[in-house]
Structure formats: C-alpha cells, structure tokens
Specification:
Length: about 240
C-alpha cells in the first residue's frame, strides 16, 4: 500500500486543559494530551464517559467550552471553516456507526473523500485499488454496503478514513460490532499504519484488544473517568 511516511516534523493534535459542556459539571474537564507524530494511544472508559465527545474535540466537530484544542499548530476556536476543512484532510476518522451511501458500491464509497476534494484522478484510482486490496476487500469492491458483513463494513470504513493519506487516524470503537478474529485483523491494519508513521488514537472498551496491541507497539493507554483524563493502570 502506498502511504507517505510522515516525518517527525509533522503537526500534532494537542489539548490543554480542554473542557466540553455547560453548567457547573461539564461532561469533560481539564483534558490535556498531545498526540505526537507516530504515537499510538488507546482511550478507554465506560459507556457515556465522553470518549466520542473527546474524539470530536480532536477533529473540531465540537469546539471546547474551556481550555484549548490545537490542530496542527492552530487553535481550533479561531480556525475558519476552510482551516478546519484543511485540517480534517490530515485526520482520518473511523466512526462507530460506519455510515455509507447504500446506492453506491464499496469502491465509490471509499473514494468519496477523493471525489469531494477533486482528487479522483487516474493516479489516485490506482492507489484506491491498492488500498482496497490492502484491507482485503478486492472481491467485494462492487458490492453495495447493505451486502457487507460487519467486519467488511469496518474495513471499508478504515479504507475511507485513510484514502487521503492522513497524518492522524481516530477510531471510535472500531471493533465494537465484530468478532475477535476480525478485531485482531483490524488491529493489525492499524498497527501497520502506525509503523508507516501515522498517529493512532483508538477509543475502545475492549481490554483484550489493548493487551494484544501492547505486544506489538508501545501504546499509551488513557482512561476517561469522572469527566477527566488519566493514565490507565499498568496491568492492562
């Protein structure tokens, strides 16, 4: 798979005492984290703890109500719409619900970011075919999303998230609806992307997945609890 290796000078996402919410008890408070180039992070915590909200702060779907979030050196609260659009081209997001356009085949769904940005030229089409093969969907390239299994949908979602060759990949419970074998296959793809220099942040409640990853990469594990971010226990 042809993916550019990002150098150490690439930008990062950084939260400094970031908060989100309203009133006396915000959903998230005092969130501080730097996603350094090439790092691998897990974000854990119970359902409703704010993991998805945290990820949305990381790609400016939500703006902090306190503190600062910086995307590639720019404060998210002062970024223009064009700035945010440009930053999001450097951030691939694998959403938990894996939304696709059901009337389009897998290939066209994965290529949508290229189409929207006008980058769907001949050279990009070659990369698209290579990417579909890398996630193991070559035989399903012309299938429609309703025909895909849960694991195939997740692999298609990952392919769509990285088609623009982003520096950062944010994945929200990417293995939540698949079996263990498929979870490991998805993890292998994410680990390979990390070895290519991509920064990875995975929100998950699956401790088995975290343990499997830590055998392959020096992953940092964080936990949201009580609206705050903390390092998870060393026994994970």
């Amino acid at each position: 798979m042809t993916m550019a290796r990002k150098g150490k000078g690439a930008g990062v996402i950084e939260l400094r005492n970031a908060a989100y919410g309203y009133g006396q008890q915000p959903l998230l408070a005092d969130m501080s984290l730097q996603l350094a180039p090439g790092s691998f992070h897990f974000l854990t915590g119970p359902s409703g703890a704010g993991k998805t909200t945290f990820l949305k702060l990381c790609y400016a779907e939500l703006l902090p109500t306190g503190g600062n979030v910086t995307l590639f050196g720019k404060d998210a609260t002062t970024m223009t719409r064009d700035d945010i659009a440009a930053a999001r081209q450097k951030i691939g997001v694998v959403h938990q619900d894996c939304q696709f356009l059901d009337h389009l085949p897998v290939t066209e769904n994965i290529a949508l970011p290229l189409t929207v940005t006008g980058r769907d030229g001949t050279d990009q089409q070659a990369n698209l075919s290579e990417l579909i093969g890398w996630v193991g969907l070559s035989s399903r390239a012309n299938a429609k999303p309703p025909e895909l299994s849960g694991g195939e949908r997740q692999r298609a979602a990952l392919a769509r998230a990285i088609i623009m060759d982003p520096a950062v990949i944010l994945a929200d419970e990417p293995t939540g609806n698949v079996d263990w074998d498929m979870s490991l296959r998805l993890l292998t793809l994410l680990v390979e992307l990390n070895r290519l220099g991509k920064t990875i942040l995975i929100a998950t409640h699956d401790l088995g997945l975290i343990r499997a990853a830590k055998q392959q990469v020096p992953a940092r594990v964080l936990r949201i609890g009580g609206g705050r971010l903390q390092a998870a226990g060393a026994d994970l």
